[in-house]
């Protein structure tokens, strides 16, 4: 089973940007649709964005217009460009398959200060 490693998180002021990366040990083309999720304290993990192998993307309403998901199958990597960040975007961000569950990675912490 593919292992997923997320990176790119950090502390940023409101209005700032971050770019998250998720690299898989396996072939993400064979995994299929990929997604980014996030979980903040006391809340359930939620879907943020998903992308097909062909590059078609869908977003949660809360991030639409601010976040962009992309993938590079040659690098087995999925990205999440996050712009105009808000304090409510603070969470641990994870990537995984969109339609089933692989072993979760450690995630990457994103903290947005007001």
What does this structure look like?
This protein has 114 residues and is mainly β. Helix content is 4%, strand content 48%. The protein has 1 helix and 10 strands, in the order βββαβββββββ. It has one helix spanning 28-31, and strands at 4-7, 10-13, 18-24, 34-39, 46-51, 57-59, 67-72, 77-82, 91-97, 108-113. The protein has a 6-stranded mixed β-sheet with strand order 2-10-9-4-5-6, with no helix packed on it. Strands 1-3-8-7 form a 4-stranded antiparallel β-sheet, with no helix packed on it. The longest helix is centred in the N-terminal third of the chain and has 4 residues, at 28-31. The radius of gyration is 13 Å and the shape is globular. The N and C termini lie far apart (39 Å).
- In what order do the strands lie side by side in the largest sheet? 2-10-9-4-5-6
Helix content: under 10%
Strand content: over 45%
- As residue ranges, the low-confidence spans are none
* DSSP strand count: 10
Task: Give the key terms.
single chain, 114 residues, mainly beta, 6-stranded mixed beta sheet, 4-stranded antiparallel beta sheet, 1 helix, 48% strand, globular
């Amino acid at each position: 089973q593919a292992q997923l490693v997320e990176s790119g998180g950090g502390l940023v002021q409101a209005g700032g940007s971050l770019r998250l990366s998720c690299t898989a040990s396996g072939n993400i083309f064979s995994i299929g649709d990929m997604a980014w999720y996030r979980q903040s304290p006391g809340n359930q993990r939620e879907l943020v964005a998903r992308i097909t192998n062909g590059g078609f993307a869908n977003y949660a309403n809360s991030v639409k217009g601010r976040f962009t998901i992309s993938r590079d199958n040659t690098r087995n990597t999925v990205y999440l460009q996050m712009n105009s960040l808000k304090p409510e975007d603070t969470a641990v961000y994870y990537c995984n398959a969109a339609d089933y569950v692989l072993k979760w990675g450690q995630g990457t912490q994103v903290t947005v200060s007001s």
